[in-house]
Write a structure and sequence with these properties.
Blueprint (H helix, E strand, L loop, with lengths): L9 H14 L7 E3 L6 H20 L4 E3 H7 L13 H19 L1
């Protein structure tokens, strides 16, 4: 959600989620918390967006995949732009996502 708008309003997240729930009735859905960033101002928006996403996940009783906490653990894999990660960092995210999604769908 870094690049697709300011999702700090739970109504926007709920609107997208309701669409997903309607369109993909038989598909498990999870909410992913977005990764941290090194810029302090942008980081505050990330924290707010993740807080709203977690509230929506709780309201709809959906599982949460916490990429935010993992991104703090792999900060050494962050690229110079302060937002993106190198191959090793993305590998860690992929491992976490696969692990969490296996738990969700099995």
């Amino acid at each position: 959600a870094h690049g697709i708008g300011n999702f700090t309003d739970g109504r926007r997240i709920a609107l997208l989620l309701n669409f997903g729930l309607d369109e993909f009735k038989d598909t498990p859905i999870a909410i992913l918390l977005t990764t941290s960033v090194s810029d302090t101002e942008r980081e505050q928006r990330v924290k707010l967006r993740n807080k709203v996403a977690a509230q929506v996940a709780a309201k709809y009783r959906l599982p949460l995949v916490d990429l935010y906490s993992l991104s703090a653990e792999v900060a050494e894999f962050r690229t110079a732009d302060g937002v993106h990660f190198n191959t090793d960092g993305y590998r860690k995210f992929a491992e976490q996502i696969v692990s969490d999604l296996k738990n969700i769908i099995m």
